[in-house]
Amino acid sequence: MNSLVKELIQPLLEATTQTVALYPGKFKPPHRGHFAVVQQLLDKADKVIIVISPITVDGITAQQSEAVWNLYKTLLGDKIDIKVVDKSPVKYVLDTVKENPEDNFMVAYGKGEEERYKSLVGKPNVQIIDGGTISDKEGNLNATDFRNALQTNQDISRFLPDGIDYQDFLKAVTSGTLEENCGCQHSQPTDFKNALALLTKYMLDQGMNITPLPKLRIINNDVKNAKNILGRTAYYDPNDCSITLYTLNRHPKDVLRSYTHEMIHRIQDNEGRLGNVNTTNTNEDGDLDQLEREAYEHGNMTFRNWEDSIKNV
Fold this sequence. Notes:
Blueprint: H1 2-16, E1 19-25, H2 32-42, E2 47-52, H3 62-76, E3 80-84, H4 89-99, E4 104-109, E5 126-130, E6 135-136, E7 139-140, H5 143-151, H6 166-173, H7 178-181, H8 192-205, E8 215-219, H9 223-227, E9 234-237, E10 242-246, H10 252-270, H11 286-311
Parallel strand pairs: 1-2, 1-4, 2-3, 4-5, 8-10
Antiparallel strand pairs: 6-7, 9-10
Helix pairs in contact: 3-6, 8-10, 10-11
């Protein structure tokens, strides 16, 4: 009789045991490599819990990481649970496994993290998985390069999962900032790179036609140019869609103003209005004179409007 009862209820017991995948990390910000790991976990687990570290890395907060994962979740489905933890993601994983012995677990670790989960090795209900490294033709994908690309307005398409819109990602990664949490309208910049990012977001929010965003080159060691009274400050190159900024011995606010000026040229390029200009001398070409007048006026006023929006709150 006992064996019969066991035979009858065993399938019910097995049906109530779930497999939970835990994926801890900084994710500042999450990229297509992280996205691919979650896709693999979803094939084997009933639920995937993404565990986000609370620390801020190079200006990317846990709230921004969470916002990006929520964007990715639109493609990954409802079996995803996203948690920003108060302390260490490692501790969260170890505690979760310990407190839920009835569940089966998969724990995916990132590069160099294997040693931190060695106490789980050998547990019958735990499978440790190497999250691995995702590469493309340009090399390994990592969050450090992703942050650098974001902060310098480089092309970030290689970091985004297929199906994620560039503009939607920018909206997600610029959400969850301190100013939004406190109810203020705009963020105060913390440093030059952060100011560039906030100024760019302002232009996007104003509906300015600046996408795809140009590559950004910052030259901070051109001594000869800095000593030249009429040296270069910045220029837009339509051939490779790039903005170059010369920053040596310049006030950051002046550089930001130059950046906004060149972004107006980006708009002109998008509208097909730069093709007939064959000189850099405004006295030789009436079209160039008008294009530069527009860049000075619209660029300066855009910068002033942004500055006023963050100073007068």
